[in-house]
């Protein structure tokens, strides 16, 4: 039986009960919160292995909660799956850029939700010691264990997704990767994101890296590579 801890955040009690029932049946340890403020309090009482987070919450909304989770060193590596309503595309993109790992649109099948949770947890566990090795190349130092990027010794603030893309490319300088390959590497083959989202992440990365941003090269008609 699974023993991972899951925090479910939703202001609709019937959805909370449905999700809690199905997760508990699979052996997960489940706690819940009805608001963003309550969710942040629960993080300290019940450090979860994954968070299911509704975006439409009273008071502190889901995006604000995600932002706070991903910016804090203690919680930054906790995977977040967003629960969204139809028509929230802009919020979904924002959530992904903040570092959320996945999203699922309401109404959803409990079987699909369980499959998504298992996929995200599986990817999260696939990290190896090699994945955590420090990469030093050009003006960059990338430390996966500390989730830290230095440009000429100065720390940069990146989202979780930006960090994964940079680390993936920097470990293989000179290799050209398609957008699909980048999506598969940083999110998994079943991740529902468009190729356009990769372009948005790359633009954001280059901007944040400043003069070092030119190490990420565009290969027209193919994808991207890290300069050798």
How would you briefly describe this protein structure?
With 228 residues, the protein is of the alpha/beta class.
Characterise this structure.
By secondary structure, the protein is α/β, with parallel strands linked by helices. It folds into 2 domains: 121 residues, Rossmann fold, CATH 3.40.50; 98 residues, Winged helix-like DNA-binding domain superfamily/Winged helix DNA-binding domain (Arc Repressor Mutant, subunit A, Orthogonal Bundle), CATH 1.10.10. It contains 8 helices and 12 strands. The strands form 3 sheets. A 5-stranded parallel sheet has the order 2-1-3-4-5, with helices on both faces. It has a 4-stranded antiparallel sheet with strand order 6-7-8-9, with helices on one face. The chain has a 3-stranded antiparallel sheet with strand order 10-12-11. Strand 4, helix 4 and strand 5 form a beta-alpha-beta unit. Helix 2 runs parallel beside helix 3, helix 3 runs parallel beside helix 4 and helix 6 crosses helix 8. The longest helix has 16 residues. The mean pLDDT is 86.
Q: Characteristics of this structure?
A:
228 residues, alpha/beta, Rossmann fold, Arc Repressor Mutant, subunit A, 2 domains, 5-stranded parallel β-sheet, 4-stranded antiparallel β-sheet, 8 helices, elongated
Give the helices and strands as they follow along the chain: EHEHEHEHEHEEEEHEHHEE
The CATH superfamily of the largest domain is known as Response regulator
**Spans where pLDDT lies below 50 across 5 or more residues:** none
Residues in helix, %: 40-55%
Span of the ends, CA to CA: 46 Å
Biggest sheet record = 5 strands, parallel
- Give the overall average pLDDT: 86
The figure for the number of domains is 2
**What is the CATH-assigned architecture of the largest domain?**
3-Layer(aba) Sandwich
Percentage beta strand: 15-25%
CATH topology of the largest domain: Rossmann fold
- Specify the structural class: alpha/beta
**How many distinct beta strands?**
12
